[in-house]
Specification:
By secondary structure, the protein is an alpha/beta fold. Helices cover 42% and strands 21% of the residues. The protein has three domains: 83 residues, Orthogonal Bundle (Arc Repressor Mutant, subunit A), CATH 1.10.10.10; 106 residues, 3-Layer(aba) Sandwich (D-Maltodextrin-Binding Protein, domain 2); 97 residues, D-Maltodextrin-Binding Protein, domain 2 (3-Layer(aba) Sandwich).
Length: 302
């Protein structure tokens, strides 16, 4: 299989334009069309819908693109790593995947220390997503390091515990409970609550927290922004959520009440990296900086 043809296909899918693809790759449109035709013939399937003036993938094309994009990303990463080790290539950037709520003061201090140690020569690219999204980015080689939760043990990923977040009750300021400093789950029996989807990374922690309590909870949401915005607009709704800077941004509309039964470390946040591959010196430097910070913070808190 011709490697150039795979790059042609990937670029076409991402630009959705034959003109732009030809321009970016410095080839002619007939060359592009011939390459795609040969690729489809070799695979024995149609990758693109036969529609004039548009670029739309077939079902097989969508499947094939995911594998091509991942494979070429790892190939490019491997080439860059070898060139970097030989001194033929100076890496100038690193890509970090992160859930929104992890980007707090701790995150900022890690970024500052990394920039200090690398003299500001490395550009930091950030891709924000949910925990499953960050882990997918990491596995596909789209990001070098991830910050978020876990979806359970994974032999392809190394997880290092960083810091945590406690669970609180987000209460609209018009609700009577907004004046409380703490509350027991037993007091919430006849109230409507919302929280995270149980199929997400916090499912096990939520189940353990509410076990034995007869509560009316809709487990529907993925993040604190959604939970907080719903509570802010509905005084009769309360949310069990992780205490992060995202909730603090709603301080004019919400009060955050301590839940008596909630453990201090309700959500454990992790830094993640790919296992079983050699990492770039730049990526390893970032990991060393972050691990040192998290270890020092753990010692101070412990």
């Amino acid at each position: 299989m011709n490697l150039d043809h795979l790059y042609y296909f990937k670029t076409l899918v991402e630009t959705k334009s034959r003109n732009d693809t030809a321009r970016i790759l410095s080839i002619t449109q007939p060359t592009l069309s011939l390459a795609l035709s040969k690729l489809e013939k070799e695979l024995g399937v149609s990758l693109l819908e036969k529609k004039k003036g548009t670029v739309e993938l077939t079902k097989d094309g969508k499947t094939f693109y995911e594998y091509v994009a991942t494979s070429l990303q790892f190939l490019d990463n491997g080439v860059s790593l070898l060139r970097e080790k030989q001194g033929a290539f100076d890496r100038t950037e690193i890509s970090i995947g992160a859930i929104y709520s992890v980007q707090d003061e701790n995150w900022s201090r890690i970024m500052y220390e990394f920039r200090r140690q690398t003299h500001g020569a490395i550009r930091i690219n950030v891709r924000q997503s949910t925990t499953p999204g960050v882990l997918k980015y990491l596995k596909n080689g789209v990001v070098d390091v991830g910050f978020g939760g876990t979806m359970g043990p994974d032999p392809d990923i190394n997880f290092f515990p960083c810091w945590g977040q406690e669970a609180v009750l987000a209460v609209n300021r018009l609700h009577p409970f907004s004046s409380r400093s703490e509350i027991s789950l037993d007091e919430l029996k006849d109230h409507y609550l919302i929280s995270y989807n149980l199929k997400g990374p916090l499912g096990p922690e939520l189940i353990a927290l509410v076990k034995g309590h007869d509560l009316s909870i809709d487990y529907l949401y993925a993040d604190e922004i959604t939970l907080a915005s719903i509570v802010a607009g509905n005084p009769d709704i309360m949310a069990i959520a992780c205490h992060s800077w995202l909730l603090e941004s709603y301080s004019n509309e919400l009060e955050l009440v301590k839940i008596v039964e909630a453990p201090r470390m309700f959500r454990q946040l992790y830094m993640s990296s790919r296992a079983n591959i050699e990492l770039s010196p730049v990526v390893q430097t970032f990991l060393d900086v972050a691990i040192a910070y998290c270890q020092n913070r753990s010692d101070e808190c412990g």
